[in-house]
Amino acid sequence: MHSSKAIILSIATTDSGGGAGIQADIKAISATGGYACSVIAAITAQNTQRVTAVHLLPQDIIRAQLDAIFSDLPVAAVKVGMLGGADTINLVADALEAYRPRHLVVDPVMVSANGDILLAPEAVDSLKQRLLPLADVITPNLPEAASLTGLPVPASLSEIEPLIGALEALECRAVLLKGGFLQQEPRSPDWLLHNGEVRCFDTPRVITPNTHGTGCTLSSALASYLGQGLELELAVASAKHYIEKAIEAGTRLKIGQGRGPVEHFFAR
Question: Which pathway is recorded for this entry (predicted)?
Answer without folding.
Answer: Cofactor biosynthesis; thiamine diphosphate biosynthesis
